[in-house]
Write a structure and sequence with these properties.
Layout: E1 15-18, E2 26-31, H1 41-52, E3 56-60, H2 77-93, E4 98-104, H3 106-117, E5 121-127, H4 133-141, H5 161-170, E6 184-189, H6 197-203, E7 211-216, H7 227-241
Parallel strand pairs: 2-3, 2-4, 4-5, 5-6, 6-7
Antiparallel strand pairs: 1-3
């Protein structure tokens, strides 16, 4: 796939495609979390593994992140929901018939919001997905001043009032969960110190026949080191069983 993908603001989104361009039955879009991009090790490894298993995968950077156009200060969940819609538009126009999305951390919240409103998404994967957005900013950045401080002391990641206000306004994606009836895999590591595993337990509906929660013992927020193969195997096996 070599289409140019632009969000509603006309900002071009950087992406990488993995798979067989001739097989357009199914494609999975992969979105990162706050301060991340499409080239995070977990995203690259997962995309490669999915392609090896016979699935098309497209990992992309949200606007203002990585090599995508836009300003990081303007990066919010709401803007990323629109970015995801632009990617869905592009793969739909390219002829892909069954579109799914896997989002990590804040990208997980993006996926819940998009899936609750967009019937074009046919399956959803949440990887250490953020649920309570307002609480996240309070816990992680409560000691910083918006438009003056930085996220986790990263000078390239200023904490903007746009980001803080947007997450506060959304507050939580938990109420949207009941609107999602498509197959939904929730994966979370027991040692996640950024988004507590309790949030995935809370959003998971055990009575939902199309939902599945997998807890990975010893895994951290970014599925680093020995945790990565476990996450990849969980996702690829679930995809094979769809």
């Amino acid at each position: 796939m070599n289409a140019i993908i632009q969000n509603p603001r006309g900002e071009q989104l950087d992406y990488a495609f993995h798979g067989d361009g001739e097989n357009k039955n199914r494609i999975i879009l992969i979105g990162h979390g706050v301060t991340g991009d499409k080239d995070r090790p977990w995203a690259v490894a997962l995309s490669e593994a999915l392609a090896e298993a016979g699935f098309n995968a497209l990992r992309f950077s949200f606007s203002g992140n990585g090599q995508s156009q836009g300003e990081f200060r303007e990066s919010t969940i709401s803007k990323e929901v629109a970015d995801l819609a632009a990617v869905i538009n592009a793969v739909e126009q390219a002829g892909y018939q069954e579109i799914g999305y896997a989002g990590h951390s804040m990208g997980g919240a993006v996926g819940v919001i998009r899936a609750a409103a967009d019937s074009r998404l046919k399956f959803l994967i949440s990887l250490a997905g953020m649920v309570h957005t307002a609480k996240f900013t309070q816990v992680e950045f409560g000691d910083q001043t918006a438009d003056q401080g930085f996220m986790w002391d990263e000078k390239d990641c200023p904490l903007s009032s746009a980001f803080v206000d947007d997450l506060a306004q959304i507050d939580s994606v938990l109420p949207l969960a009941e609107q999602i009836s498509i197959p939904w895999l929730v994966v979370h590591g027991s040692e996640d110190d950024v988004v507590p595993i309790e949030e995935s337990r809370e959003i998971f509906n055990p009575s939902g026949s199309t939902q599945k929660l997998i807890e990975l013992p010893g895994c951290n927020h970014v599925f680093a080191d020995d945790a990565l193969p476990a996450m990849i195997q969980t996702v690829t096996q679930w995809m094979k069983n769809l």
